[in-house]
Amino acid sequence: MKAKVNKDICIGCGACTAIACNFFEIGDDGLAQTINTDENSEEINKERVITEEDKADVLDAADGCPVGAIEVIEE
Ligand code: SF4
After folding, report:
1. pLDDT per residue over 34-62, tens digit each?
2. Is 70 exposed, middle or buried (0-12, 13-18, 19+ CB in 10 A)?
3. Of 3, 51, 55, 74, which is least packed with CB atoms within 10 Å of its CB?
4. What is the distance in A from the centroid of ligand 1 to the CA of 16?
C-alpha cells in the first residue's frame, strides 16, 4: 500500500501533517506532500510505501482530509 497527495486538490490546511507527521509535510508550495525518505531521489511527493507503523496514521489522515486529496494506492 502506498500514498501520495493530489496537489491539484490539496488546500494546504495542514491536517494530514498533524495526524501523520512522519509521513506528510507541507512543501515550499504551501501544499502537502509525502516526506521523501529516498536519498537517491529528489522527486517531490513521491508515492510512498506505507509501513505497518505508519498505516493507522496515514489512513486517518486520508479519512480526515477535508477535500479527499490523499490518494491511497492499494497493491
Ligand atoms: Fe492537503 Fe488534505 Fe493534507 Fe489538508 S489534509 S494539507 S487538504 S492533503
Report:
1. 999 888 889 999 999 999 999 999 999 99
2. buried
3. 74
4. 5
Ligand 1 centroid vs 17 CA: distance in angstroms? Answer: 8
Determine which helix (DSSP H) or strand (DSSP E) holds 40, and give its type and residue range.
none
Please give the helix or strand (H or E) that residue 2 lies within, else none: strand 2-5
Which amino acids bring their CB within 6 angstroms of ligand 1? Answer: 5, 10-16, 32, 65-67, 69-70
- Closest residue CA from atom 5 of ligand 1: 65
Given the C-alpha cell 489522515, which residue does it identify? 61
pTM score: 0.95
